[in-house]
Amino acid sequence: MIVAARPLAPAPGQGYRRASQMGDGFEAAWGSPIRVLIADDDGGFRASLEQLIERQPELSVVGAAVDGLEAIELADELDPDAVVIDLHMPLVDGITATARLRRDHAHLCLIALTGDEDPALHDAVREAGADEVLLKSELVEGLLERLSAARERV
Predict the structure, then answer these.
(1) Domains of the chain (ranges plus CATH)?
(2) What is the pLDDT of residues 36-58, one digit of tens each?
(3) Residue 125 has pLDDT above 60, yes or no
(4) SS3 for 134?
(5) What DSSP element (H or E) covers 102?
(6) What DSSP state is assigned to residue 55?
(7) Closest to 50 in 3D by CA, of 142, 39, 88, 4
(8) Does the pLDDT at position 10 exceed 50?
(9) For residue 106, what are the contacts with CB-CB under 8 A and spacing of at least 6?
(10) What distance in Å separates the CA atoms of residue 85 and residue 6, rounded to the nearest whole number?
(11) pTM score, two decimals?
(12) Strand order in the sheet with 132-135
């Protein structure tokens, strides 16, 4: 069963400040924000990750998926610049979803997240097309650095 994604862009004047609300200085320096899709089956982690990303003026969360199948469908629909994807999810796992996303959206910055330190798992998702594999325990520093670098791909 696919759970419909909830809209993530807050109504004007509500929620986090969007890149469009940052004024001409932001647009001149960055252009449009990097559009990020989050895929993780842990609702609390997904919400925290969304808040972390939205606090960065150069990043914008455009959607959230609860499983790998929904991540593929939302990427097709929303055409994000980057996908942050958990490896252990229902329906379609993160490795399979990463391979499909890489095949269908070669331009994407694909960042895999996992709590699993198994090097074979990391190698498998890199082989599937992930640009980076980050441990959830090292998330904040590594993720923000890698997403900001996605500007080079856009």
Answers:
(1) 33-152 (3.40.50.2300)
(2) 999 999 999 999 899 989 988 99
(3) yes
(4) strand
(5) helix 94-104
(6) T
(7) 39
(8) no
(9) none
(10) 17
(11) 0.74
(12) 59-65, 34-39, 82-86, 109-114, 132-135
